[in-house]
């Protein structure tokens, strides 16, 4: 919220600069995003008066204006605004000036006529289109008649003010108003803000005779209304418009502007109805009917939910309570009778309504964070009195009450010893008492115990800890002594799970993959893809967008989104991994899902890009990704044999290029190519993926010592080529070789696979290199040959292999 520095000075004696004041707010209360002055970057913008104008000789819409800018001679300025007229004072950008967007204005010719500057509209000097009053949105702006010719325009438009943009936390809703900030600064600077309170000038007619209220107190614990008759709708005075547009609010008219002004000043949302558009004389606060429709002030027709709160007349809904009014009861130029609503609605219901309709307004922001329940009457009184003064309205006697209750001050106790113990200070009793009084709290001291009475303006304070925070921030966080914690300490270290996760990241990065971090929320469809186990979905009750409705049950879908993002930007070679949690529920009735650590990878294109080689030939394949996974599992030193077993149980994977991964008979993941139809749906190129259950890998036994001394004795290799049936797998052959290879067999490497001509039907040729090495002595040919013969005989007898 943007708070005006000049507005604050109306209530406080501020002797510090805007930036110093903002720093004090940030150090003591809430975060400050920025301190800006609307005139920043602008120069040589002065008040000018159009003395006369004539048509441009070479244009049907341009005018040549003779403008008095306070110099000896009138300046001729060409202007094309449709509302340009003689006799008005306007904003003039002189030659050499800077206007909005850092645009420099020069003396130039426009269709042959020299223009000595520019007559400006509000948006041309930096005003946002969304705050410019509609009457000035399509033309130049007319300054007030008392503006002095030749003077800078900034003071006449409020552009010499400083705006402090505070970022209010949910617990400090009181800071969403000028009064709230003034009270807080009063406490910080030990001043009592000079806040004004309305004195209402009423007529004798009773408001209760004009309107009746029928309110569900469970929806609106406080609901009150005033009636103002005979109002005259017109533009608001300039001082009010300036306050509004500096706060980022567009001025509309003198009735609507009053409600927005009161919101900024008091923090109490109000709504003004055109009472002549209300059917009957009773206004209801109720829940919406299922399927009921309402066109809100933004001209959007909305289908209401039964959980929405609406304000209604006898026939229809006329407002979405606490969020936005209805178009069917808006204030317009024909309005004569205004009903002013001032209420407190249930915060959770307002928040959910705003989320449901994606309609977040200033009113809903205030109601969600809470409002001063003791200030409802004062806010509606102030609004009614302003409409009397600015719109010549007659205020009917009395506030009509639909629901209300006695708002009592909160009473909280805290001891001086507790204050000093928690804050590490040595404050005296009178110092703490003074702080509570500066905050506007009532306080009594009985021995060591303070009894603090907290007014309704600070509805965030309920317990002793809240008072401790108030003492700390008003005393000054910078003044609190720095102390070290006392008591026994333990040496911190990573858990086994944390070590595994960090090692996993390092390993995959060493293997050529880059880390990706995807959203844990995705669509319902993507959440259910690539499932390693059966699970019910976990849906969000109030998703922010349609793309983030469901907790993920796999990591691959997020990686494929990342691949698609890169492919769409002509990045064809993508190698990513992600470590994160997936969420499973055994049944839809479970309230909370269980969380499981997974790690997954996706590679598309080339893993190692070689510009001298054919890209298609070097594209990643199943075996390259399989090698990466095998190396990863080997580096984790997990005990047990790793098996890759062909499977077709994943509908999103290519049925002929997918395998389950198991270790010692326990399934830990899968690997393979994404099904072409799925790849097409994601708009990605051919992609290979894997996903592993990190929790399962963590629970498996590990080899405690992986290190062995390098043998100083030479190795001996033997090659063998086998002719086997096509249904014989590489895993079967490796298992048989390792079983019969003997103690000195160090490694087995498949170096050739052939199927095709010159081989019998149903046969394939596989060639292996076997490496033998004795770490303690030099092997002889006889020893190697003996062991090698056992391997060949075993392959022939067990697998029906033919040695080639």
Helix residue percentage = 10-25%
Q: CATH superfamily of the largest domain, called what? A: Bira Bifunctional Protein, Domain 2
**Overall mean confidence score, pLDDT:** 93
**In angstroms, what separates the terminal alpha carbons?**
83 Å
**Rg estimate, integer Å:** 39 Å
By CATH, the architecture of the largest domain is named 2-Layer Sandwich
Which CATH first-tier class of the largest domain would you pick?
Answer: Alpha Beta
> Could you name the CATH topology of the largest domain?
BirA Bifunctional Protein, domain 2
Kindly give the count of domains. Answer: 6
- Beta-strand level of the residues, as a percent range? 25-35%
- Which spans have pLDDT < 50 for at least 5 consecutive residues? none
Structural class: alpha+beta
Cofactor: Mg(2+)
GO molecular function, one term: transferase activity
Subcellular location: Cytoplasm
Catalytic activity: tRNA(Phe) + L-phenylalanine + ATP = L-phenylalanyl-tRNA(Phe) + AMP + diphosphate + H(+)
């Amino acid at each position: 919220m943007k708070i005006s520095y000049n507005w604050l000075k109306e209530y406080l004696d501020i002797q510090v600069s805007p930036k110093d004041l903002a720093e004090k707010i940030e150090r003591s209360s809430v975060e400050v995003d920025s301190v800006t002055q609307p005139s920043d970057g602008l120069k040589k913008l002065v008040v000018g008066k159009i003395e006369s104008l004539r048509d441009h000789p070479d244009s049907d819409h341009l005018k040549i204006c003779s403008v008095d800018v306070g110099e000896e001679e009138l300046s001729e300025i060409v202007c094309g605004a449709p509302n340009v007229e003689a006799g008005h004072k306007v904003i003039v950008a002189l030659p050499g000036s800077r206007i909005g967007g850092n645009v420099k204005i020069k003396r130039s010719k426009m269709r042959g006529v020299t223009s000595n500057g520019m007559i400006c509209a509000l948006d041309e000097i930096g005003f946002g289109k969304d705050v410019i009053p509609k009457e000035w949105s399509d033309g130049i702006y007319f300054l007030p008649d008392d503006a002095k010719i030749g003077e800078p325009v900034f003071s006449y438009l409020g552009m010499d003010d400083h705006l402090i943009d505070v970022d209010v936390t949910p617990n400090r809703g009181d800071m969403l108003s000028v009064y709230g900030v003034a009270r807080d600064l009063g406490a910080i600077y030990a001043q009592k803000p000079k806040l004004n309170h309305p004195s209402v000038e009423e007529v004798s007619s009773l408001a209760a005779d004009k309107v009746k209220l029928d309110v569900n107190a469970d929806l609106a614990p406080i609901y009150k209304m005033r009636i103002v008759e005979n109002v005259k709708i017109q533009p608001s005075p300039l001082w009010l418009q300036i306050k509004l547009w500096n706060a980022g609010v567009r001025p509309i008219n003198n009735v609507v502007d009053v409600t927005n002004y009161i919101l900024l000043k008091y923090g109490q949302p109000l709504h003004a109805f055109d009472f002549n558009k209300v059917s009957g004389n009773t206004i209801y606060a109720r829940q919406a009917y299922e399927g009921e429709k309402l066109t809100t002030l933004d001209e959007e027709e909305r289908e209401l939910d039964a959980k929405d709160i609406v304000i209604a007349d006898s026939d229809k809904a006329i407002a979405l309570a606490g969020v936005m009014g209805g178009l069917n009861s808006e204030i317009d130029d024909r309005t004569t009778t205004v009903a002013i609503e001032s209420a407190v609605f249930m915060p959770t219901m307002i928040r959910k309504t705003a989320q449901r309709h994606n309609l977040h307004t200033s009113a809903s922001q205030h109601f969600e964070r809470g409002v001063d329940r003791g200030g409802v009457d004062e806010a509606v009184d102030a609004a009614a009195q302003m409409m009397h003064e600015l719109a010549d309205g007659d205020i009917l006697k009395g506030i009509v009450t639909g629901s209300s209750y006695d708002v009592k001050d909160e009473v909280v106790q805290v001891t001086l010893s507790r204050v000093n113990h928690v804050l590490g200070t040595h404050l005296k009793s009178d110092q703490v008492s003074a702080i509570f009084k500066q905050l506007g709290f009532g306080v009594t001291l009985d021995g060591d115990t303070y009894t603090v009475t907290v007014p309704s303006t600070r509805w965030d304070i309920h317990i002793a800890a809240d008072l401790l925070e108030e003492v700390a921030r008003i005393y000054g966080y910078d003044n609190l002594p720095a102390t070290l914690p006392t008591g026994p300490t333990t040496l911190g270290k990573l858990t086994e799970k944390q070590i595994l996760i960090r090692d996993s990241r390092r390993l995959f990065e060493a293997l050529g993959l880059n880390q990706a971090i995807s959203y844990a929320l995705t669509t319902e469809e993507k959440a259910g893809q690539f499932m390693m186990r059966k699970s019910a979905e976990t849906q969000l009750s109030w998703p922010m967008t349609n793309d983030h409705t469901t907790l993920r049950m796999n990591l691959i879908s997020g990686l494929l989104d990342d691949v698609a993002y890169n492919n769409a930007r002509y990045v064809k070679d993508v190698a990513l991994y992600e470590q994160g949690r997936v969420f499973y529920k055994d049944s839809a009735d479970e309230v909370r899902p269980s969380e499981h650590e997974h790690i997954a990878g996706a590679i598309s294109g080339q893993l190692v890009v070689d510009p001298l080689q054919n890209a298609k030939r070097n594209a990643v394949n199943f075996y390259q990704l399989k090698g990466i996974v095998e190396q990863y599992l080997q580096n984790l030193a997990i005990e047990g044999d790793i098996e890759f077993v062909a499977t077709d149980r994943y509908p999103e994977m290519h049925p002929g290029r997918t395998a389950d991964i198991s270790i010692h008979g326990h399934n830990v993941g899968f690997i393979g190519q994404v099904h072409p139809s799925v790849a097409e749906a994601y708009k990605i190129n051919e992609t290979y993926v894997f996903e592993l259950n990190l929790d399962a890998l963590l629970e498996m036994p590990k080899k405690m010592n992986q290190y062995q001394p390098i043998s100083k004795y030479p190795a001996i290799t033997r090659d063998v080529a086998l002719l086997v049936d096509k249904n014989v797998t590489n895993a079967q052959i490796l298992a048989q070789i390792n079983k019969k290879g003997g103690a000195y067999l160090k490694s087995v490497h498949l170096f050739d696979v052939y199927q095709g001509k010159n081989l019998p039907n149903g046969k394939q040729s596989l060639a292996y290199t076997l490496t033998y090495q004795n770490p303690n002595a030099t092997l002889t040919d006889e020893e190697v040959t003996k062991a090698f013969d056992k391997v060949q005989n075993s392959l022939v007898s067990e697998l029906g292999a033919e040695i080639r």
